[in-house]
Known about the structure:
Blueprint: H1 3-25, H2 31-52, H3 62-89, H4 95-103, H5 107-119, H6 122-138, H7 141-147, H8 162-165, H9 168-181, H10 188-199, H11 201-213, H12 218-222, H13 225-247, H14 253-263, H15 270-278, H16 283-306
Helix pairs in contact: 1-5, 1-11, 1-16, 2-9, 2-10, 2-11, 2-15, 3-4, 3-6, 3-13, 3-14, 4-7, 4-13, 5-6, 5-14, 6-9, 7-15, 11-16, 13-14, 13-16
Amino acid sequence: MSFLDTFGQMGVLFLLVxxxxxxxxxxxxxxxxxxxxxxxxxxxTAPCIILSSVMGxxxxxxxxxxxxxxxxxxxxxxxxxxxxxxxxxxxxxxxxIYRFMFxxxxxxxxxxPVATSLFGTYAIFYISVLTIPFNLLIFLLxxxxxxxxxxxKSERKVxxxxxxxxxxxxxxTYIVIILVFFQIQTPKLVGEAIHLVGYMTIxxxxxxxxxxxxxxxxxEMFGNWRIYVMSLLKLLAIPALIYVIYSLTPFxxxxxxxxxxxxxxxxxxxxxxxxxKEGIDPKVMSQGTFMSTLLSIIxxxxxxxxx
Length: 307
């Protein structure tokens, strides 16, 4: 796919953020609506998009599950480690939020259309397998990272409990594992319904991000230097390092190229949803999501040319 085609794909997704911003200005969306919609996304539509990854005409082949799962998990762990190091270097009291932004990219909402356009439909399978460790980490560690920034000292300590392990998104992930392992086909009627609800996640989450940005002054939106550093490291430096590492290994490029692109995704929009759900100011998270999404319009096509 050419640079201009990839650029256009990213531009379409970014326009959804702009539409959300406009909706807020027109009083069609507000803080209460954003919070309610975020709860709906996390508890209903996001689990549905996870389930929909294995509710097509064919199930992923067992033979490719293990290599994709191992390489994908290794890549996520690498992002967690580098993200922790980079967040500490930035010296901020919101270290947990920056750790989240470094570690978790928008592989579900932006990664699927971008990777599919670059590599073909087989990339959907790789992403669906990767969502297993990704969702386990983002809804466990990711929520802990964000909750650690709670200003209320009495609520600052966050521990892993059964409610987090049995959250709707993680429960959907467990079901995906069972369906793939036992090669269970779901009824077409059920699959189509789950797909329709799941597809709401992409536009809804981007609209919420745009709406939350409307409450941030323009100078504040573009004036946080840490956001620029985070974006450049996340979108270019770290993916380039991953590309170099994988190029020195014997792993199949059809796996590693997809993982490099997915590691270069902008900040996961789940971050803003979790902030709103947990009652934490989403300003910095929204800034990071907005700026990384904006810059990814250029950085992802550049990486696609290199691959």
